[in-house]
Write a structure and sequence with these properties.
mainly alpha, 3 helices, elongated, 129 residues
Length: 129
């Protein structure tokens, strides 16, 4: 059996102080995290305004498309008053957003992918320092 040093009250107090210090640093990190994230986003937007605009446009189109899908398929009313109403099955209205997405996405995707890759590489290099 190996000889171990007895734990003293001083050891406990030092450990408690170190834990309290770590906890305080953790709280400060959590408090600062949102401001750091917003700061990095705003710096990136200033450095790459065209990529930011393209990303915003694509995000807007995607959100519009999602909302359009949710509202067009989710608004079917059920009940006795809707049973007699029938829709023609072959009626299909053209969707201009679908056409726009089909044209824009192949052109924009490589730019967005390279932009995100550069941003992540930059963020990773900052965390290494």
């Amino acid at each position: 059996m190996e000889n171990r040093k007895r734990v003293t009250e001083e050891d406990l107090l030092i450990t408690e102080a170190l834990i309290a210090q770590s906890y305080g640093q953790l709280k400060q990190s959590v408090i600062r995290a949102p401001s750091r994230a917003f700061r990095s986003v705003s710096e990136t937007a200033r450095e790459h305004p065209y990529a930011t605009a393209a990303t915003a446009v694509v995000a807007g189109v995607v959100v519009y498309k999602i909302i359009n899908q949710l509202t067009s398929h989710g608004s079917v009313q059920k009940g006795p008053e809707r049973e007699n109403v029938s829709r023609p099955k072959d009626t299909c209205r053209p969707d201009p957003m679908h056409d726009i997405l089909l044209v824009i996405l192949p052109m924009v995707t490589p730019y967005i992918a390279s932009y995100i890759q550069k941003y992540l590489e930059k963020a990773e290099s900052k965390t290494r320092d």
